Amino acid sequence: MESPVESDHSVPTNPTVSLKKRRGRPPKGSYAAFGSDDEDDDEYYGGRSRRRTNRAPRPKVSTQSSGSTVVPKDLYAHRATLEDDELNFGVVDPEGEKKVNELGYLNGGREYRCRTFTCLGRGNRLYMLSTEPARAMGYRDSYLLFLKHRSLHKIIVDDAEKWDLIERNIIPHSYKGRAVGIVAARSIFREFGAKIIVGGRRIVDDYWEGEFRARGFAEGDLADPEDKLPPPGMPYNRNQYVAWHGASAVYHTQPSFEAQLPSAVRKRKKDPPKDATWLFQHAKATSAYNNDLAENIARKQTTGFFEPHSNLLHVPQNSQPSRTEWAHIAHDQEEYIAPKLDILVSLNPDIAPQVSLINVPFSVLASCPPHIQDAIRRRQEQELLQARMNGTLW
Predict the structure, then answer these.
(1) 225 and 174: one domain?
(2) Long-range contacts at 245-248 (CB < 8 A, ≥ 24 apart)
(3) What is the pLDDT of residue 302?
């Protein structure tokens, strides 16, 4: 029998023979997936540039963001090794090493802007919740922090460490089912320097002093001028970056529409009274508001209420007549052949049932001023007339 014909796509048995590459454009993501290096790419494209000639180059994105840092340019060129929960690139600054020890404790009276703590089973090394330095540096969450700063290493604590943090009131009990990430405080100081220090100043409190000096930063300038420092003798508020203490407003740096208006149009917020008469001022303001309401109601009683949907002017019902009387009046003049009748229409409003002044005692009436007595007597006469018309009084 004849041996079967081998297919053109069969794999050669000789290991020295290389496979021919497919023609055409490679699929997207092939370089990231298979880890091809630059030499293989140049061989595949025949030594040509991989950039398409009909596509404009990407614009350069400015790196001077709110969380940008200054690190040596060749820092990421070194291969990093994980040592003591930190990425060690093998590059240090001798002056920066004097400001922090190997466990993350700061020297020279410096303090972190975020809370620091030790973790169960990790010795006396200082750590931070990854969300707190992220908010302190202007990021919404810790994902962007570790995405932009590759020298930081995120640690996900296990259940035992998480319960220990809950018992020490470092995280709330509601976080027992979440993935809690922490980061070494020393690596945060190496990355951000003076920006993570309370009242930190450039070069004085930075780790990479040589890089800051080489790039022309002025020594002694505040690293974060927008940071609110406490008065002398008061502790720094580290809870402002804690999520369950209202840290959601920290990263809202976009100016509001009202802030862009001119000062003459912008509404000024009234400061609450701080003196001892605040209760009297509140009562006075409440009384003035009640007077305004009473004046508005009295004005509406006379002018009516305009309803824009129906385009009608509505008036109170108690100000309109509700009964009519028709009477025939005959003329007695002799020159008329036939008596002429005139029709008289009388409109009388109903007296409000909840107000009755007929049975006002004489002692109360005598104690009133004269004009009040006259008004009460006129009202009593109206009520008596109305009662006779209704047939309730004989």
Answers:
(1) yes
(2) 247/131, 247/132, 247/135
(3) 77
